[in-house]
Amino acid sequence: MKACPKLSLFLALACGAQSALCSYSESITGFNTVSDHFGSPPLGNATYDYVVIGGGTAGLTISARLAHENAGTVAVIEAGGFYEIDNSNRSSVPGTAAYFIGTAPLFKNALIDWEYQTEHYSVSIIL
Question: Which of 2, 19, 35, 107 has fewest C-beta within 10 Å?
């Protein structure tokens, strides 16, 4: 089969013209950053109606209820950085965080276990 140079030239020019007319670009600045998920902290001196110290079970419950009831502006202060960023896969893969909880020095990771010591009380008070 003999190639047709005119058809080949026509197809090459047609494809080139079409690709020159169609272009696509995408800007991904700020994509998937921490502030995309949690919001950026305000600049300057911010004031809040309520400041909750500690983002544990009680602190986040109280702040969520205050925010849900439109009681005013709420700020939560929590120690440390972002657990998922500081620990990488150790906080994302199930079961890997448990590897670092133990008594041997090799198993200690301060980002996962803060090593709080508790004392046993024989009497408990239920309010």
Answer: 2
